[in-house]
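It would be a great kindness if you could assist me with a short task in structural biology. Thank you for your consideration; the sequence and its C-alpha cells are set out here.
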Amino acid sequence: MSQPHHLFNSAGEWIAFRIERYVFDVDGEWIGWLPWNDGEVVNPDGEYLGTICLTNRLLRFDARPYRGYPGNPGYPGYPGFIGFCPLPPGAHDLALPLGKVPGTLSRPC
C-alpha cells in the first residue's frame, strides 16, 4: 500500500490526505478520488470537490469545466470483481473463514 500524501489548505493547515487515487479527510473519511490522474478531485458522487495544486495543496476553484461523469471507483480497499476462472485439476478454493468444510466455496467455471 502506498504511503499517505498529506494535503494542506492555502494557510498550511493539514486538511486531507491521498493514498493512490483516493482522498480522505483528517478523520479518515473518504471524501473523493482522482478519476483523471491530473489533480482534479471529485467527491464519491462524481461532483467536483477541488484540485491538488503545487503537489500538496487541495484548493477549490469557483469555475471548472464539466468533464463528464467520472464513473465510480468502488470503495477504497475493495478490489472489485474479476470474474470466475477454471480450477486446475486437483485444486480447490480455500474455505473462508477457516474452519469450514474444505471445498464448500469451490465453483466450477
